[in-house]
User: Fold these one by one.
Assistant:
Number 1:
Amino acid sequence: MEIYTVYILKCADNSYYTGVTNDIDRRLYEHENTINVNCYTAERRPLALVFCEHFEDINDAISFEKQVKGWSRKKKEAIINDNWDKLKELSICKNTTSHTNFAK
């Protein structure tokens, strides 16, 4: 059975890169050795693997990767720090223009 991994790399510029792979060791090697010069991480080395989650179904892995890519930095850091319970709180819109700030 193949395992798929969603991973987050912390880049030298403090940004995060999120990806999915069926071979995490190979993929980390490719990032570290700039196999693709157009890759986001090519100019942001060194890199540190800060998170990975494993899936048995590729569709679940791709779905989770897309979800994480759309998250704020704070939400990514919550899962990196294994604070999954903070995700709900971090999902609440706190903008002054939020619909939750208007009287009903």
Number 2:
Amino acid sequence: MAGTGIKRFLPPTLRDVARRAAVSPATASRVLNGSTTVSPAIRQRVEEAIRAVGYTPNRVATSLRRQSTQTVSLLVPDITNPFFADVARAAGRAFRRAGYSCLLCDTGGDVATEERDAVLCLHHRVDGMFVISNSGAPRFFEKLGRQGQAIVLVDRPASDELDSVRVDNADGTLQAVAHLAARGRRRLAIISGPLTLLPARERFDAFRAGLDLYNLRRIDPYLHATGFSVAHGYAAARHLLSLDPPPDAIFAGNNTLGIGAIRAIKERGCRIPDDVAVIMFDDVYLAESLEPPITVIAQPTGQIGTVAAQLLLGRFNEPNRPPKEILLKPQLVVRRST
């Protein structure tokens, strides 16, 4: 009886699948491995048997046989930021559809933590890394790439050695400046993230170029670079509104800076957009829910995550192909804050 009880709890094997489907274990294995040499009728029979017996492939054995763990890591600076969360979610869906599991690492925006997490992922023998780095330069990940690790850089920074997916930050920023100028705003300010990070630097430089392009006066105290948090946006907006005269429009370099700036504007008793117009990079669910709803430069987060995942999956099949840089277009979404 004891032996029978133990046997009942053993997981089903490939032999159990083959026996139920009335095929050989070798045929059942070919179906599991996606072989095209199996007829559709037999494939259907084996798949039905897999579901019936509740068979799950031994991933460890499969990894040893294929020299692949079917696992990728996602390194993200701040998973509470809706932009990063949306990008990671889209990438995760694409990886799962391809049969890969994901290890999510929230690095907290700390470069040392980011590098430690990457090394830890290497110890877990991940097949590839999806990286949103907080470093100003990708030297650490380029070194890993030269050692054979498949890597795709997302959003920041850029690299001549690694695949990357980014948004055209200059184009998005120029759309914002053009929109504000068309609405009659003349005293434009920017609250930018750290200029050591590529997206912030590209948006800051494009903002200054946009002022010149649309014959708007460049007022240096209105050009404010800071951190990338809600608190930084709040402090920066308080400072800008204390100037004489204050700006009549604020362009926030990302969603967290924009949320902080709006809080400061409302605390000061200013009306949006009557006293000061607000536009921010990134479209998040809060932007449309705020009062008034916020005009944004929307990044295609789903497309960013999916395209980056596809680049990394393609790298597994073509490890020696030249690196690709894909630049996606953002879109101006006009709401009542401008």
